[in-house]
Write a structure and sequence with these properties.
Largest sheet: none
Strand content: under 5%
Oligomer: single chain
Order of helices and strands: HHHH
Length: 97
């Protein structure tokens, strides 16, 4: 049996995805707060008439998109990329420049 993921894990994954987009576009870390505000502004229109609107908005509120959170997420992604590259180079027999 597969254990369902918790909302906090989903919120963390969403935070990493937004952070990755901010990193790719070279935007300031404060853009995360802008994105979250945009999500929240549109929920009234997008989910009007849904019976579970509060259940939809709750996970959006849980996503951590402060500038410090974005900064930490980007640092973790960079560190992971460096570790993967080092591991791949270390495991190789030879490589060409």
């Amino acid at each position: 049996m597969v254990k369902p993921r918790s909302h906090s894990v989903d919120a963390t994954i969403a935070s990493f995805k937004v952070s990755n987009q901010i990193k790719k576009k070279c935007k300031p870390f404060t853009e995360g707060e802008f994105v979250k505000g945009g999500f929240l502004e549109t929920t009234d229109n997008l989910f009007e008439g849904f019976k579970n609107t509060k259940e939809i908005i709750g996970p959006i509120l849980d996503v951590q998109l402060s500038r410090n959170s974005i900064m930490r997420r980007i640092e973790k992604m960079s560190q992971d990329t460096n570790e993967q590259l080092f591991k791949d180079v270390s495991n190789g027999v030879a490589f060409s420049l």
